[in-house]
Amino acid sequence: MSDTDFPYGNPADSDAGLLIRREKLLGKNAPLFYEQPLHLVRGEGVHLYDADGQQYLDVYNNVANVGHCHPRVVQALSTQAATLNIHTRYLHETILEYGENLTKTFADPLSMVMFTCTGSEANDLAMRMARHTTGAKGIICTNETYHGNTAAVDALATLFGGGQPRGENVKSVPFPDGYRPQDNLHGRALCDAYLRAIDQAIAEFEEEGVGFAGVLMCPIFANEAVPSVPAGYLSGVADRVRANNGLLIFDEVQSGFGRTGSMWGYEFVGVQPDIVTLGKPMGNGHPIAGVVASPELVNSFRADVMYFNTFAGNPVSCAVAKAVLEVVHEEKLVQNAEDVGHYLRAGLCDLQQHYDAIGDVRGPGLFIGVELVRDRISKAPAPELAARVINKMKAKHVLISKIGPFDNVLKIRPPIVFSKENADQLLETLDLVLKELALEDGVL
């Protein structure tokens, strides 16, 4: 085969050549991070490496929750892949061992698991279960959320729909925001205002003849930029869901597996749901996800619905996920997320005292949002500044991202093996970047 068969170069081509080939194959709008896309070739622990061998501190990827290419996880994958991989219509010890180990980390009655391949599938399945159990169709979500990319859960992708649902039988409510509170309310009055939106959505479903099936939310509101939630809000949501015979679904794709400094986000917020969905960090980058619920819910659903997923919960996936769970426990990574998260937030709050552009620092464990504003009095969002910060951070070999309704919140979500030394590097680099921006144009 001649070189002309590859008009855009080979895999070792320049970044510009790779970008041309990528757009030709995947489309020009396939999303990429950063103004100058990053060509990564290797990962280890909390670090990523580009094609030139440059090391980057990864402060974004919760997918590799226990660190990139953790040797224990890699070995589990390799060993099982070299032995057997098959779908789940056969008996296999590893599938059962993992499922038993996983469900032991949940409180009763959350003791059964249904495996999927992705968090999108898990949320899709959870919605099916809620609608099957209740006989109703209506699902409530927030107005700045995303729960996956199947047709069913895309209806909830208000993050990309101007706050509005993108499909039928879904209603969105304002997310509970303590930084920019609704009607400038505070305390109990603010909580009640947000809860009235839940009441109204439930009433509308009933009036429309759709019926109310449940609420699907992330317990830490990750896609909403981990807001400071008014006290009593989630317990109030749970009370209203159950009073109206619905089911409370917590999407723990981002908040689970130790991220918050608790094993599960629902433990951190102190409200237990009826269904929990899992994804991303479950396999440390290997595609495995799932739904955890009570025997009553799972058995009732399975009695009427033939749910089967060829690849979900196969022996290799479960061997990988089992190793991930063991690493989380044996390396005490839940405690690490709490300890290092506390240390990092303290450092960020110290930076806030020096830079007026840092309007708010918030978030549990190792999921932290740093809200950038034009000034602290008006709280006017500074999305352009956020974009400049993340690109300058990348140029200094630290990878973060941004999120939020105004795209102005720095999203800090590293693997939970992140250390205090790693936190120091992040803080020092952010300090340097903010100083440079101040010198450039005085925006700070």
Largest sheet: 7 strands, mixed
The total number of structural domains is: 2
What's the SSE pattern?
HEEEHHEHEHEHEHEHEEHHHEEHEEEH
Identify the CATH homologous superfamily of the largest domain: Type I PLP-dependent aspartate aminotransferase-like (Major domain)
Describe the structure.
The protein is of the alpha/beta class and about 450 residues long. It folds into two domains: about 35-65 and about 330-440, Aspartate Aminotransferase, domain 1 (Alpha-Beta Complex), CATH 3.90.1150; about 70-330, 3-Layer(aba) Sandwich (Aspartate Aminotransferase, domain 2), CATH 3.40.640. The chain contains 13 helices and 15 strands. It has helices at about 15-25, 70-80, 95-105, 120-135, 150-155, 185-205, 235-245, 265-270, 295-305, 315-330, 335-350, 385-395, 420-440; strands spanning about 40-45, 45-50, 55-60, 110-115, 140, 170-175, 210-215, 245-250, 275-280, 290-295, 360, 370, 400, 400-405, 410. A seven-stranded mixed beta sheet has the order 4-10-9-8-7-5-6, sandwiched between helices. Strand 8 (about 245-250), helix 8 (about 265-270) and strand 9 (about 275-280) form a beta-alpha-beta unit. Helix 2 (about 70-80) runs antiparallel to helix 10, helix 3 runs parallel beside helix 10 and helix 11 (about 335-350) packs parallel to helix 13 (about 420-440). The chain is globular. The model is unreliable at about 1-10 (pLDDT under 50).
